[in-house]
Amino acid sequence: MFSKIAINNVKRSFRDYSIYFLTLTLAVCLFYSFNTVESQNSILEMNKDADFMLTLNKLIAGTSVFVSFVLGGLIIYANKILIKKRKKELGIYMTLGMSKGKISKILIVETLLIGVLSLVVGIVLGIIVSQGLSVLVANIMSVNLNKYTFIISLSAVVKSVVYFGIIYLLVMIFNQFTISKYKLIDMLNASKKNEEVKLKNTFVSVLIFILAVGLLGTAYTRILETGIRAEDAELLITVLMGVIGTLLFFFSLSSFFIHVVQKINRIYLKDINIFIVRQINNKINTNFLSMTLICLMLFLTITLLFTAFDLKGTIDRSSEGNNAFDASAFLIVDNENEDPKVNDVEEYLNEINFTFETYEKHSFYSEYKLNLTIENLLSKYLSSQEQIDLVQNYLGGAISAIKISDYNAIIKLKGEKAIDLKENEVLVVSNYSRENHALPQYMENEDTITIEDKAYTIKNESPIEENIKSTGGGEFFYLIIPDNFNGGLQLEYTSFNVIYDENYFEKSEEKFSKIFTEFLADKYKDISPSLVIGKTKEQIRDRENGSVFLVVFLGLFLGLIFIITSAAVMALQQLSDASDSLERYKSLRKIGVSEKLINNAILKQSLIYFLVPLGLAIIHSIVGIIAVSEIFTFHYQSIIVSSLFLVIIYGAYFYATYVGVKNIVKNSN
User: Residue 357 CA to chain centroid, in angstroms?
Assistant: First the structure.
């Protein structure tokens, strides 16, 4: 009997359950999709490092646990809203003699039905979506899709069933606890309770609204001035100002909004706008705390998605000029030890019997430190904050120098012509101009660089943005000096670069990857105490792709979960408020308001309620994106893709909410 009642309830109330079912299905779909990532060959080809896969598995496990808590809270909240809507129905059951225990059994069966259905549909949808997700992530990461295969991950299916099974079990326990607390009189009169207005005084509401705008404006100004490089305490204060400003904004918005609209008679008195304004006032006033949380979650969502979609491009741009060679290595010089076998990388390689093949073009060179820092060189063109940032950055140290003969040997590897350098000339090799305006200004206004009281003419008009070695991303600054430079020089590294013959690329890559790994493991410490560090371009690419993938994975997963959570809470609140406002809609019909005007009122309410937190979140995001623009260069592609995700999911919930509220009001007639 309980099963029959539960099945009939689900069929009869399917429209009420539609938002709930949509949320569960999307949650299962995303949960399954992201847990299949570790099984997809096209992703595994990106990085074959065992440590990376271990990190990826730990990240997926940790993120899954976090997301399960978020979704568990959302599902419990959704159940609470649904039970609240059905209080009167449950009260009638009790009036007819049904005990609370039997009502709980009905709810358990209903939860199981919805849960099993959402699990099945969600996993089937997830199998489809996961394939597209793999392709999307692989495209973002520029991974070869030749090894892409259609997969169904059994481990992801099991994990989805287990995690959501636990969540549904908690929901059942919560439902029983909730039902046990309800009194019959409260159930029967649930629809007659009105919202409690939190802020009634118009003057106070205007004052708080102005304070909120002031706090947000100050927070925006501070973050735009300092960016995310501000001191921890300063950044924390800015964030707190933004959060408190957002909270006060929504706390005072409804009273401020109604006060402003009442002054505009052509809007306030048109059609049934008086009713719409009062409804919106009640909704925002009652739910200001949840709207604050939703706004902040949407802000995080937009930022996460923009960052995830553009991070790969940002890393690639920062790596330009840093990966000209197939392999690079350097030996850290110990200036207290004069043994050339300890400080010369060529001698070191001979000691360990390492040789270069004829198809492995290479060059040796030495790096020195000058008695000159970038801070001293560019101080005239740096602001005080930029000088502080420079000192904190590794570039704030002494400038590196390379002799022209070594530099010519390096560029000859790439097939470039040698450069002639006079005794009083230097070349500037740096990508520092991408990060700061100081170097371009210096080279535009200055013709010489003074090193130890001697002026050297700058031979090039603009910096050479091609690194002397493969390092991946990062800033570099070198001066190319004459071979007979007579200033103070301190030997820092002895190094070498290699370019493979294309016909032997895989063989050479395996060889140098192996020797660099052995250097890292101190395999030759018994032969020599020297410390040599090397990376191949492929190793650098794998490291960068691995780091980027973790951020992309985290950004997409959490971003989409946050959108669903935010939109679902908004939708459920709207549906709950619609049930509480049925008597008001009936009153509108009694005074002759047409169905078209009522539907129009529902559309306006839903649209405003969904757009208000989203609008403020977009403003937050624009300011935040500008603040981090020195690190991330956002392009229209990332903006379009991120916006599509947001519009499709958020828009789907908005439309489903509008249809759901309209049906609730229509069926009450």
Answer: 45
